[in-house]
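Please, structure for the following, as tokens.
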Amino acid sequence: MDLNITPAAEKFIRLMLRADGTSGSGFRLVVSPGGCSGLAADISVLPTPAPGDAIVERNGVKLFLPVESRILLDGVTIDFAETASQTGLIFHDPKATSCGQGGGKSAQ
């Protein structure tokens, strides 16, 4: 699976795991079509993957991804932004057409 996570996104995910998780917890990312980047997301920290989730590891961070999310995230770069107008994960999908500045959608 071709999925990239920027250092800023990795830092955010690690903070979420430290705050809400236990040893072995993972960051569940449920992605669906929608938003300016073509993707909208629901995020949570879980002790174990949900049934059907795959565990995808990047730099020691465990992501729990359902099958549809794995398909939609292929080729995507996940970033994190914290600005006056936007806070959250941003999905840079080279396959999507942007409807605004930045080409991404934050997960809230």
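The chain has one domain: 3-107. Confidence is low (pLDDT under 50) at residues 101-106.
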